[in-house]
Write a structure and sequence with these properties.
50% helix, alpha+beta, two-stranded antiparallel sheet, single chain, 7 helices
Amino acid sequence: MSKSFLVRKGVSHVVNGETLMFYPVSVKAAASLNAIGKPIAQAVSALFSGVGNESGQQERVHKVGEDVTHETIVLAIDPKLAEVKLANRNKAIEALIGAVTDQANLTTLAKIIMDSLRDDYPAVPTKEMIDELLSSDVGTLAQLVEGVLVASQDSFSPLLKRLFALRPAGSPGVVEPRAPEAVTTTK
């Protein structure tokens, strides 16, 4: 006997020109996200935490009689700090790529996609089905993941908002080591 509150409505989503019906991810499939989510969340957190602007800029205006001199002083990040930040960023990128390309994680991702496409796949997909899905090109896989996220947005939106909140607005890219201080003077 099926309870009406357990029945979720699907969302149609176009993948490579074909309309597919995606359903919210089941609790069982969502629980398997821990295998993928934890290393990815740690890498994303490492990438975007502690991103600050340790450098700065000072503007000075000197007025002597009719002459006005504008001076800009650029305060650079300490080179050692920049090197540490760059090394940490590179490690986080490697961990993120490793998590996304790990075969076990890809299998879990395929099972989650198939769970959401429950009209097209059985509850327990075969290895052949998983391999076939994973042989898709990256663009197709991205569209499938997008369909899962759209169908499961009520479940995933709080998590996604938290992930994106880790990244400060206007956060800089790679921090390169540079000289401690540079001064430019213009007249």
